[in-house]
Amino acid sequence: MVATDPQADLTAAQSSPGLLGQLIRFALIGGFCALVDLGTYTLLTQVAGMATSPWVDVARAISFIVGTTTAFFLNRKFTFAGGRRDGKAQIGSFVLLYTVTFFVAVGVNQLALQVLPESAWQHTLCWAVSQATATVINFVMLKWVVFREPSTKEN
């Protein structure tokens, strides 16, 4: 059977890679973006002298914004097929989601700084805990809210 609708070919070519494929792509992109985030945070806290309060929170905020903005565009392009449509609504949903996870990441980072003992690795460990928390929230919300795919069931 030959499809006469050019959109059918485009839709088939851009179909979702499935949950496992999405998890793998999300993890690879997330790993890259985590390095961007951590690199920015480390540069700001260790080189730019932002390791003390309140500057450490500013450093975490800046690194979060840099990392998550990169993640949004890469995940939109490569992970979630639903990200290839409905741009304005998705950007609004993304901004709302990342505003919430921004406060979660900065808050968890600050809490971890208060709870974990001081050491040479304290800032990196606190960043990792806050990043892991934000990552779980982001995958769930990106998959099932921001980049949700239309239902294939007919009503």
Quick recap of the structure?
The protein has helices at residues 6-13, 18-47, 55-78, 87-115, 122-146. It has 155 residues and is mostly helical. The longest helix is centred in the first third of the chain and has 30 residues, at 18-47.
How would you explain this protein's 3D organization?
It is a single chain. The two termini are 25 Å apart. This protein has one domain (18-146). By secondary structure, the chain is mostly helical. The chain is built from five helices and no strands.
Structural class: mainly alpha
Number of distinct helices: 5
Which term fits the overall shape?
elongated
Order of helices and strands: HHHHH
Number of domains: 1
Radius of gyration based on Cα positions: 18 Å
Query: Got a strand count?
Result: 0
Q: Regions with pLDDT < 50 over 5+ consecutive residues?
A: 1-6, 8-13
Residues in helix, %: over 70%
Pfam families: GtrA_DPMS_TM
Keywords: Membrane, Transmembrane, Transmembrane helix
Organism: Amycolatopsis bullii
Subcellular location: Membrane
